[in-house]
Design brief:
Layout (H helix, E strand, L loop, with lengths): L2 E5 L5 E6 L5 H10 L2 E7 L4 E6 L12 E4 L4 E4 L13 E20 L4 H14 L2 E7 L4
Antiparallel strand pairs: 1-2, 1-8, 2-7, 3-4, 3-8, 4-7, 5-7, 6-7
Amino acid sequence: MTAFTIKTKNNETIRFKFYCDAAPVTVNAFIALLPFKRTFMHARISGQEIWINNAIELDIIQENASVFTEPGEVVYGPLKPLRTKTSNCMGIYYGEGRGLDCCNIFAKVFEEDMPMLKQLGENIWKKGAEELIFEKLDQE
C-alpha cells in the first residue's frame, strides 16, 4: 500500500501518498494503525495545520524529521527521543506552517485533492474540531 485516505463529516475523501523511501519505519507503523478515527482541531501556533495531541502512540525512531513542512504534508510525533515536544501528536498541514519540534514527515496529499484539504482546514479553523476517519487506499 502506498496511500491512505481521510473521510470528513461531509463524506468527502481526501487521498495522501506515503513517503515510503524517506520514512519507511513511520509509514509501516502508520499502516498498521489503519483504520482509525480521531477528532482533529486547528493549531494555534504552528500555522495552517489541523492536529491532535492524542494520536495512537508509535514507539518508533525519529526519521525524515523537521519543523519545516510543505503544504499538504502529514507529520507524526514519535515517542523517541524523549525530549520531543510533539510526541504522540499528529498534524496535517493545509498551508504554510512550522512545527514546535521535529516530527516525522511521512505523507503528502495528492495534488488534485489539495483544494479539499484546504477547505477542511478552513472549516475546522472557523467551525471547530471534526472527527476524521483514516483508511487504507488500495491502488492498482
